[in-house]
Design brief:
The complex is a heterodimer of chains A (503) and B (216). Chain A is mainly α. Chain A has helices spanning 13-26, 30-59, 68-89, 96-101, 109-139, 148-172, 174-201, 213-236, 243-261, 266-279, 293-303, 306-315, 327-343, 347-354, 357-362, 366-394, 403-409, 411-423, 443-450, 460-468, 474-495, and strands at residues 434-436, 439-441. Chain A has 2 domains: 44-261, no CATH class; 288-495, no CATH class. Helix content of chain A is 70%, strand content 1%. A two-stranded antiparallel sheet of chain A has the order 1-2. With 216 residues, chain B is of the alpha/beta class. Chain B has one domain (31-54, 69-200): P-loop containing nucleotide triphosphate hydrolases (Rossmann fold). Chain B has helices at 44-51, 73-78, 94-104, 109-112, 114-120, 136-149, 166-181, 193-198, 206-209; strands at 4-15, 18-29, 33-37, 59-64, 79-81, 154-158, 185-189, 202-205. In chain B, strand 6, helix 7 (166-181) and strand 7 form a beta-alpha-beta unit. Chain B is globular, with a radius of gyration of 17 Å. The chains are: A mainly alpha (503), B alpha/beta (216).
Chain lengths: 503, 216
Amino acid sequence: MTAGSSAPPVVRAGPVRRWIRRTRSAHRDRGESAGTAYLLVFLAVVVGGLVHRYLRAVFWPVAPNASALAGVALFLVVLGTLHPALRRLGPVALSRPATSWLLTAPLSRRVLLLPALWLAAVSAGGAAGLATLAIVGHVAPRPVPGQAEVILPAIGALAGVGVLLVAMAAQAGRRRAAWLDGAASLVLAAGLAGLVVDSAVDLPPAAGAWPDDTGLLAVAGALALAVTTGLVAAVRGLAGTPNDRILEAAATAGTLLDSAHGVEPSFVTDLVQRRYWARRRLRSARLRRRVPVLIAQDLLLVRRRPGRLVALAGAVALPALLASAPPWLLAVAVLAGGTVAAGTSTATVRTDAGNPVLLRLLGLGSRAAIAQRLCVPGVLAALWCTAALTVLRLLDVLPAGPWWALGLVLGPVGAVIAVRRARAGFVDNGLLPIDTPMGTLATGPLIGVVVGIDMLVLGLPTVLLIAVGGPLTWAGVTGQAVAAALGVWAYLRLTTSPRRVDL
Amino acid sequence: MGEHAVEVDGLHVSYGPVPVLAGVALTVPEGAGVCVTGENGIGKSTLLRCVTGLHRPDRGEIRVFGGPPGTTPEFWRAVVTTVEPPTWYPGLTTREHAELVCRAHGQDPEAAGIDEALDRFGLAGHADAIPPSLSSGQKQRLTLALALLRPSSLLVLDEPEQRLDTAGRDLVAGLLTEYLEAGGSILMASHDDGFAERSGVHLTTMASLAPVPAAP
């Protein structure tokens, strides 16, 4: 044991990292790395060969098919989505072992964190650049004027790095984080609103007026200067990134890896939820006395998620994006949206399904518990579907008829799907895999994905009503209401029991 | 058989090839308390899990209030256990958890004395905190507070003194004594003989419950 009063000297991080890499690779078989590289190249060639036509359709269709408004709106959506993704990942992060052993060692913090910064910059810039290339492909007239197909993706990539710098600023300070995250949400909302307007107004593809190369180059130059300045400042301030933020990011990255390794998405859901509530400052409220206890609990928890409710309210316009898609897809989108709205209130079901300790303490039977737990999700789904179908009717996407009533009777369908998914619990990796000529297929994750979605069958009357395209009649609404009521009754009857507490 | 809260006879449990309980017999009379002691790994928690129906034994008979331990709401309205680690509802505060438990059992939260209970367990200052943010000792206090707040006839507690400081142990011991005096029954496992004695329960060793000791 060595102890002393003077601080140990700062050690260079590079040699330590190289030593770790060398030692780890010494444990691997020499052929293993070559085999992995071969597999990756092989996969890239095979997958590229299979999907290159689709990729071309996604990135560069033969003729432009989107308006300038859609292009700008999509760009805002890309930036607005990139920010929360980077924030979830850190963006400055270390692996879990590195946080345990290197973060606490006398190493240069800046050098330790620099690789993470470069990786994040390349990823953010690359992702935004590719997305911008796809947007240009859909919007730019043919032939593409000047060098727009090069300059605009470059601007997109620079904007991506800019978003990374914003995410880093949010990572460094909790106060800044709240309003920077809020601003990113506004950018995303503005982009989605632009898409909805574009879809509703049905603007023609962009043509004619197109910025010349000089203007685009000036924008790219200014952006490059700003991003470079920002990057220099970020590198200088890198050592000041708070430890708790790095540990948080490492835990997220580790959980994502665990989740991918175990094909278990609930790890990430739980982590996000734990962090959300840990940051909230709550005041104990009284549960409503006049409603059953679990409904009172769900009402209280929904009231505590005003941001989620606002996002759901904003999202009622999103199905309008599919105005020109096949009608059945529109119907499925409405059902999916209703399910997401219902899912706002199913975290308690997930808790009880994962560990029924609290249900035993409450002494409630599974039938009573699930019947109560279906209520608040049902109301949320009903309200959401009603609003979404009303918007579609107002935009003339749907023909005449009492669509609001159809939305109301879709509530139980959304609730059953959301609660069934929440009850699914962990993915069962103990199930027998299926051997196929292409390799082994794990059945547990496959079933995990399908659970809940199978209950979409309860919304079949709605899919038919929208797909047929005629005016909606009350008979149609009644048909959906009967299907939903029978579905809830059968779900409660077949999957719960008044003689059992566990879900 | 109706005068006993818990009756266990000829209980056998193995984990794989390793026998943990071999022919265990135990009786907890109604209104009485029994504390099982013994070194780690001797099967105390396994015994408690079997009594609460959370572990299926290989052989043997278990009756709780004259019936088999089960998964019914009626069983869990009579029995409270801390054998399993607790989970907490996300977004619900400490006080709201207590109110939820009372309301589920038809109790008026104020009449049940939620605030007094939290105060007694030293949790009054954490009423607005979410349970995951509490220390392990505070979580243990909350678990015991919830277990004692709601009505029940039998407490099955696995090392209730764990993670509690001296004052906490004295408090819980006093509350368990009150529970017995009110007619409740207790089956618990503990490593603290003094705590068990202060709780008013009868001490017995795992070794004395089995005619044939289980192989290590």
